[in-house]
Write a structure and sequence with these properties.
The chain contains eight helices and eleven strands. With about 220 residues, it is an alpha/beta fold. It has two domains: about 120 residues, Rossmann fold (3-Layer(aba) Sandwich); about 90 residues, Arc Repressor Mutant, subunit A (Orthogonal Bundle). The strands form three sheets. It has a five-stranded parallel beta sheet with strand order 2-1-3-4-5, with helices on both faces. Strands 6-7-8-9 form a four-stranded antiparallel beta sheet, with helices on one face. The structure holds calcium ion.
């Protein structure tokens, strides 16, 4: 899953970027409103964390423009303490959730998980596909209850496929949601990662749909 982090405070930005990466997300960072506007309109993100007090263009204006342009990702706004009118303006501009500064990183991560699962239509905090389970709270996956060791990219790939299980996901979509903008992207590497993942979770769970992409589904005989 790929997150856009919009924050002008360099210390908070660095800390959140680190925490998000540790939690298994690809992260793009925008330090001002103009960069945020550009990244939000040109790159597909699974969720956005948007500070409202920003240089060049304020967060509420950025959000209004994104929504007008059809940007549909869930947006969590960061607001100043005691500023209820900022929250109202944020929600009216299209925000989905908010946090008041200062906040605990754990709370931000929990809210983000909730936004991501709601956006993908899941109600359960952990994802399941037959005997395969992935728990974003611990950033870990198991098969038949046995933990499987995944690199961060394998985890990200599995997380995305499980969020969108039973759907065919193209390689392009995977590339766009697994890597941040600074990463040297190559859609051929996706095939390599899918191959490695198959070795770890079993060869038949990820189906290759020729010319279209990949689909993760429960094995025959397994409950969904
Ligand atoms: Ca700020």
């Amino acid at each position: 899953m790929r997150i856009l982090l919009v924050e002008d405070d360099p210390d908070i930005a660095r800390q959140l970027k680190g925490a998000l990466a540790d939690a298994g997300y690809a992260v793009d960072h925008a330090p001002d409103g103009e960069e945020a506007l550009f990244l939000g309109e040109t790159e597909p993100h699974d969720a956005v964390i948007l500070d409202l007090g920003l240089p060049k263009l304020d967060g509420v204006s950025v959000l209004e423009k994104w929504r007008k342009a059809g940007m549909a990702a869930p947006v969590l706004i960061l607001t100043a303490r005691g500023s209820w009118n900022e929250k109202v303006a944020g929600f009216d501009a299209g925000a989905d959730d908010y946090l008041t500064k200062p906040f605990h990183t754990e709370e931000l991560l929990a809210r983000l998980r909730a936004l991501l699962r709601r956006a993908a239509g899941h109600a359960q905090p952990a994802l399941a596909c037959g005997d395969l389970r992935l728990d974003p709270r611990a950033a870990r996956a198991t098969v038949n209850g046995e933990p499987i060791r995944l690199t961060s990219l394998e985890y990200r790939l599995l997380h995305y496929l499980m969020m969108h299980q039973d759907k065919v996901i193209s390689r392009t979509e995977l590339v766009e949601h697994l890597y941040d903008q600074d990463f040297d992207r190559d859609s051929n590497t996706i095939e390599v990662f899918v191959g490695r993942l198959r070795k770890k979770i079993g060869p038949d769970r990820i189906e290759t749909v020729r010319g279209l992409g990949y689909r993760l589904a429960p094995l025959e005989g397994e409950a969904a």
